[in-house]
Structure formats: structure tokens, C-alpha cells
Specification:
Elements (H helix, E strand, L loop, with lengths): L8 H7 L10 H8 L4 E5 L5 E2 L14 E5 L4 E9 L15 E8 L6 E4 L14 E9 L2 E8 L4
Antiparallel strand pairs: 1-2, 1-3, 4-5, 4-7, 5-6, 7-8
Bound molecules: zinc ion.
The site of zinc ion has 8 residues, from loops.
């Protein structure tokens, strides 16, 4: 598959066996294959929302455009899982697995939840600046956050 080919719905389901792909979120996962985090943006009021819904939660307009976001933001909520569902590359016994909800810089209240890679659990703090990065999960890109060094 080359990047210019748009994967079919069936291919998407194959590439993301851990996700439940539906009509509303398929544009999100198609973006992941190109390492692009896209959120539905309302064509009318221009507000983003996530997770994907069939209509804009602000104005109920159904004209939604999957639009790339920067993935930069601040940690709004942090949890540390000591046990949980099996996930590739996650060893709960070795270290607590951080799960963070990040408020993205594009819009107040626009949040995305994933993990933080490449740092010790004690470095994960509410209010910390993060940026988006991509790791491999079962052969497909998966969005994670990394801490941004404050200068
Ligand atoms: Zn709207």
C-alpha cells in the first residue's frame, strides 16, 4: 500500500484490530495510517470535537471535516495503571502505565487520551507541556505524547 491509496473500510478494520472502527471514527484511523491526528471540525461554526460524533455537538451541523491538529497541549488528567487490558509493549508489572488526557492547543476543552512515552512516571504531571509522537502498535502507527522540555 502506498500513502496515496486510501485504505478501504475492511483494510482499516484489519490494521487496527484493537479498535472498533465505525462510520464516525474511520477518518480518525485513516489519519493514523499517515501519522496525522485528525479531529472532526464543523464546517459551520468551525469548532473541533472529539471523540467523533455524527453531528457537531455545538451547533448540530452535520457537515464535518476531518482536520489535522498539532497534537501539542498540556496534560489535563493523568492516571497510572498498575494493571489493565493486555497491550503491545505495555508491562504493568515493570512500571505503572501512564494514561493522560491532553487538552490540545487548538481549542479549549478539545482533549485526546493516550499514553506518555519516553519518561519516568514521576515526570508525568498535570499541566506539563506535551507534543505528539507516533509509535508502532501491531504494525500500524499509534499516537502517543512526549514531554516537551521547558527552556
Ligand atoms: Zn458546529
Amino acid at each position: 500500500m502506498t500513502l496515496t491509496e486510501i485504505p478501504s473500510d475492511a483494510e482499516l478494520v484489519e490494521r487496527f484490530p484493537y479498535a472498533s472502527i465505525d462510520h464516525d471514527n474511520k477518518a480518525l484511523y485513516r489519519g493514523w495510517l499517515e501519522k496525522s491526528l485528525r479531529m472532526n471540525r464543523c464546517d459551520d461554526c468551525q469548532r473541533f470535537h472529539h471523540p467523533p460524533k455524527p453531528v457537531c455537538p455545538s451547533c448540530w451541523c452535520s457537515s464535518l471535516v476531518p482536520s489535522e491538529v498539532s497534537g501539542r497541549g498540556t496534560i489535563h488528567l493523568a492516571m497510572f495503571l498498575h494493571q489493565g487490558p493486555p497491550a503491545p509493549g505495555v508491562d504493568y508489572a515493570k512500571a505503572p502505565h501512564p494514561v493522560v488526557t491532553v487538552e490540545l492547543e487548538e481549542q479549549e476543552g478539545l482533549r485526546f487520551t493516550s499514553t506518555v512515552a519516553g519518561c519516568a512516571p514521576e515526570e508525568v504531571r498535570i499541566g506539563a507541556l506535551v507534543e505528539l509522537d507516533w509509535v508502532d502498535r501491531l504494525g500500524a502507527p499509534f499516537p502517543v505524547f512526549r514531554l516537551v522540555e521547558k527552556s
